Amino acid sequence: MPAWLRVKTGKASLTRKTRELLRGCGVCTVCEEAHCPNIGECYCSGTATFMILGETCTRDCRFCAVKHGQPAPPDPEEPARIADAAARLGLEFVVLTCVTRDDLPDGGAGQFVATIEALRERIPAVGIEVLTSDFGGDLSPLRSVLRAEPTVYNHNVETVRRLQPIVRPQADYERSLGILRAARGNVAPGTIIKSGLMVGLGETPEEIAETLGDIAEAGCSVVTIGQYLRPSPEHLPVARYIPPEEFAEFEQMGLARGLRRVLSGPFVRSSYHAAETAAELAGS
Ligand code: SF4
Q1: What is the mean predicted confidence (pLDDT) over 93-105?
Q2: Is the CB of 99 under 6 A from ligand 1?
Q3: Residues 142, 108: Cα–Cα separation, whole Å
Q4: Contact status, residue 168 vs residue 59, Cβ threshold 8 Å
Q5: Could you tell me which residues come within 8 angstroms of residue 70 by beta carbon, excluding any fewer than 6 positions away?
C-alpha cells in the first residue's frame, strides 16, 4: 500500500462503543458490510451509514464485499430499528443505502419510504441522503422514493462506461444515467442529486472526464471519487493506486464540467462528508 493509503483507525474504545450500539439496535451498516476503510474514523466520531433491506444482495458486483444470494423478505421492523439507532447516536443527518433487491416488485422502494418516515417521526429535523440501486431501470419505485423528499438522492455509476460489464455485470451505465436523469425530473425543489465512482480499476483520465461530464449532464450537482480497494482475493485486482495529486485533478475536471461539489480523494466514499456537503449546498 502506498503511504497515502494508511488508514486512520480512531480510538478503539469509541469505535467499540458505536459498534456495540449498532449491534444492540440490530441494524446493518455499509461501513462493516463493505469493509469501508473509514470505519474507524466514522465509528470513533459516532456516525455510520445504514444499509437497509438486509445484508444479502441479489447482485454480485466484482468490487463489492457485500454478500450475495437469496435475501430474506424485507423486515417490517427494520425502519424503526434504524430510526432508534440514529436517535441514539444523536445523528442530525442520516445516510441510507441498501443492497440491490431485484427480487422485490418495488425494488425495495417501500422500505426506503418507511425508513424515511420512521426517521422523521423520531428525529423531526433530520436530513436524509438515500443511495439507491438502479431499480432495474424501473422509474416507478424511484418516483415513490423521491415523493418522500429525501434531502439528497444518490445513485452511483461506480465506474466508467467501458468497465461496467467487468465491474458491475448486472448493471448498466446508460441505465444508471437514466435513473439520474429521471431523478432530475422528479425531485422536490432543493433536493440534491449525487453520484459517485471508484478509480484505480484501469480507467483512463479521458474516461473519467467523460464520466464526470455524463454525470453532470444527467443532473447531478455532487460527485464522489475514491480509490478502489480490493476487499478480498476473489474480487477484482487494483489496477493502480492513484496518487492524491491526480485526485485533485479529477476535482478540477468535475468542476469544469459544471458539478458544484467534487469530493475526490483516496478515501472518499459515497457518504464522505455527506452532511457537510448537503448543508453547504443548501446554504449557497
Ligand atoms: S448492487 Fe450494491 S451491494 Fe449489491 S453487489 Fe453491487 S455494489 Fe454490492
Answers
A1: 97
A2: yes
A3: 10
A4: yes
A5: 56, 58, 103
Dihedral sign, Cα of residue 273, residue 67, residue 104, residue 24: negative
Query: Hey, what amino acid is at 76?
Result: P
Q: Give per-residue pLDDT as tens, 128-162.
A: 999 999 999 999 999 999 999 999 999 999 999 99
Span from the CA of 99 to the centroid of ligand 1 (angstroms): 6
Q: Which residue from 168, 175, 232 has its CB within 8 A of the most atoms of ligand 1, so it is best to mutate?
A: 168
Tell me, using a 6 A CB cutoff, whether residue 66 lines ligand 1.
Answer: yes
167 lines ligand 1 (CB under 6 A): no
Q: How far is the CA of 224 from the centre of ligand 1 (A)?
A: 17
Beta-strand pair 50-52/28-29? antiparallel
Using 50, 70 and 90 to split pLDDT, how confident is the model at 101? Answer: very high
Atom of ligand 1 nearest to the CA of 57: 4
Least confident residue range of 17-26, 41-50, 95-104, 154-163: 41-50
Three-state DSSP class for residue 242: coil
Residue with cell 437514466: 178
Q: What domains sit in the chain, N to C, each tagged with a CATH number? A: 8-283 (3.20.20.70)
- The CB of 114 under 6 Å from ligand 1? The reply is no
At 98, the amino acid letter reads C
Q: What is the pTM of this model?
A: 0.96
